[in-house]
Every structure is written in structure tokens, then in C-alpha cells.
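Appendix B, Record 12. Input sequence as logged:
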Amino acid sequence: MEVRLDAQDVNARALTLKLAHGVVQTPVFMPVGTQASVKSLDTQDLHALKAPIILANTYHLYLRPTHERIAQLGGLHNFSGFKGNFLSDSGGFQAFSLRHNTKEHPEGIVFKSHIDGSSHLFTPSKVLDIQYALNSDICMVLDDLVGLPASYSRLLKGVQNTTAWAQASLEHHIRHARPYNRIFAIVQGGTHLALRTQSALELSALDFDGFAIGGLAVGESAQEMYDTISHTAPLLPANKPRYLMGVGTPRDLLEAIDRGVDMFDCVMPTRNARNGTLFTMQGKISIKNAHHKDSDIPLDCTCICHTCTHYSRAYLHHLFRTRELSYFRLASLHNLHFYLELVRGAREAILQGRYASYKTCMLERLG
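Logged structural output:
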């Protein structure tokens, strides 16, 4: 993977990544397409949003429709119709979030399907083989994600498992991947900074294409998360992209970019949209509130997304209250446009050497 540093403003970075299905400029937000589909949107919507990369879920696609079927149908790009890049996770987060259905195994993670209760084993090599079948542009290694708070011994074990699995993953990747399947490792260690150092240094010694900071936004405070990012990001190779997994709010993105993070994903923009919470440059609004029912203004008068240029708050309020399906699409389009424009604005500010003022301005406007 070709990586170019276009600019750096203190710790904030603007990179250009050349992947098999197009160029990705960072900072970048990746919409979450769990089932090879961003909820309520189609691929034309994603192309209109100019999203260069989206995230697919290895666990869910392995169970249904299966990676074998997706491979037979030409991989994720042909199957979904999205011609941009796909990053696929490894299933480690699902093992964490569905932990009542999982148990430890010497070779990886054993879990029961949430669909039919059948038992499955994810190993470092198996999750990569699944992602190769999906034809992912960026494949994530299997990691041992630990919820917080957690004991030192459990966090240490998570780091040790993650490093061992990463080593096995890289060996398998070298032998079996296509040239355009890229691979990222995942740093663990909770908020214990010495363990984050251990994990980051052990993984940085290995020749991965990029590195993720995992295991955050799983129970710790926002400040603990920011402190952990501040500590961890500088330990990772400066010539490789850094990805903060599953985070987060607009403030979280701005703070993490300030600390040297390049890539993000989170379900928040689409999930909040479906639940009636919409992001604007004047702060969040709840479209379900009655005072919107007579408002003929758009969600955000400064926004040029499809929703804001065509529909009023009153109409969106009506759609939400009546549970019309079109609401979910229009609201998701707006929230994703907001997130994508936020990071595009951050990139422009970094290129111009004014990221600190951009961040301050955005945080004041967002409240």
C-alpha cells in the first residue's frame, strides 16, 4: 500500500492512501456497512456522499450470507455494487459484544451464532481467509478485546493473545493473501499505559500495512480514552496509517485527529439518525420534538446534503413520527454527510496549518 504524508500540523496528519479500489485521503470517516450495506442507504447514496471506503462486518457476513457465497458472486464489491474500498473487521468486537455466546479457546475464540446457536471457531488464519473471500481491501487481524474496567492480569492476557495472534496472522497473510489485500494490526491494553506501550511496540516491530487502536469506548471515560490515544499514537510507525476503531462522537474525532489518528468508523451517525438525533453545525437536534412540526427551514442552513437541500424540519418530523421508511434514508444521509464533511474540513485545515483553530471553532459550534 502506498502511503504519502501530505501535511502534518503538530500531531494532526493528512495522508493519501492508494488502495486497490481507489485513493483514500485522511483524516477519513468510514461509514459502517455491517451486512455489506450501510443501513437504509444504497450504493448510489454512498457514491453521492463520496465515501471512499466503508466497513463490512466479518462475523455477520460469515454467518449470513456466508463468505463462500459472496466469493462466488464476485466479492464484496460486485456483491454490493459499492466500487470503493472495503475495510473488514475480524470479528473480535462481536466476540466481545456477544460474550455471553463466546468462550476462550487455545487457538482463538469459540462462539455460538446469534442466528441459530451453531458453534464456530475463529482463529487468526480463519478470519483472514474469510476476509480474502470477501476480497477486502483492508483486513483486520483477530484481536482479544477486553471490556473496561478490567484487571491488570486480564488486560495483560489480552495483549499477549493479540500479539501472538497478530504474528500468526502476518505469517498466514504473507503466504495466502492477494497482493492487494492489505492487513492492519490492532493495539490493545485498555487504559493501562504500560500495556499500551508493550502492545504498540510489539506490533510495530512487525511489517503490517497499518495499525489500529482498539479496545476503547468500551466503558472508560472520554478523558481516559483521549489520554490513551495521546500515549499510544506516537508509538506507532509514522509512515503507516493509524485507525481508531469504533469511535465516536464528533468531539471524539476532532480530539483523536489532534492526537495523530487518521481513520475512524462508528455506527453513531446512522444509529442516531434512526433514533431521531441529527448533527448540525449548531449542535445536535432531536427531530421528534414537537417544536419542529411547523418549521420550514432545513436541518442545517449551512448544509448542502440531499436532505437539507430538499426537505424541511417539519417534513422530517412528520416522517419520523409516522415511521415512514424514507425518514431513515434522509436522516442517515444527513448525518453521514455531516461526519464526512467534518473530517474533510479537518484535512483542509491540516494542509493549511490551522488545525488547532479549526478544532476550537468546531467544538464551540457543536457545543
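Residues 124 and 164 are 9 Å apart (CA to CA).
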